[in-house]
Amino acid sequence: MAKLSSQEMRKLDDAARAGWLYYVAGQTQDEIAKALGTSRQSAQRMVALAVSKGLVKVRLDHPIAKCMDLSVKLKNRFALQSCDVVPSNINDPHSTIGLAQAGASEIERHLKSEQPKVIAMGTGRVLRACVDELTGMQCHQHKIVALLGNMALDGSASPYDVVVRMAEATQAKHYPMPLPVLPRSRIEKEQLHNQHNIAHNLALAANADATFVGIGNLGTHSPLRLDGFITQAEQDELQNKGAVGEIISWVYDRNGKLIDCAVNDRVASTPLKAESDKPVIGIAAGEEKIEAILGAMRSKMINGLITNEYTAEALLSID
To answer: If you average pLDDT over residues 89-112, what whole number do you get?
Structure first.
């Protein structure tokens, strides 16, 4: 059997989701179309494809079936607007295989809208991988804005900035954030934020129609530390104060409460609103990120999650 392309795999995954919603969850084609962000005709074709490819028999014969069950449980437990769980490699608890494709599919659902949208993006390895999976599109009606800068204090830049790369793939107008992640002081941050172009971009990001962020851990392999944005002493201080994770460099504890610390005082990223009525989707998986994802959901700074089966089961096992 010939190996399927990423696009063909996403098409089969979408068909499997539609088949699960129709045959297992008992939803109508109109309800499926709304859940998947597509037309009724497309939903009908996806259900038909699930049948023609043998994904649907008496039960859904596809790994996505268990994942859909897990996603429903996570949505209900953490009051999420959306949750997408992809199959995972049970032999590798750190694997993020499948996240990029699932994230790309969700981003594309918004990009396919004919109505102009503002899409706000964080940075990081997983988001960069998602953007690399996007198909070429002509999306001149949309705006893509960065939620934060990607410079360290020495002027070096992280290689995981995604806004420019996403704009190249979609031809959308883009608004990078020319800022250090952590200015030297709160006063310096306020001075930067008062600059006209940065104030405009911050306002644009704060009112985005859809937001996508990575979720970083504060453990041994903390992205903030590895990418040179904080020192080892600052990381040690954060861990001593109970920090478990960060979203666009805002640091929080296991219960989702922002830590009272110098990092949060200086961070120049766009503040995320708790309990936003617009989609704010976190994309993350892996053993090291379980506590960070848990805190992120409890914080209500995200209301959507894309993760994998291993991570979903671990999150649901926590009291």
So the answer is: 85
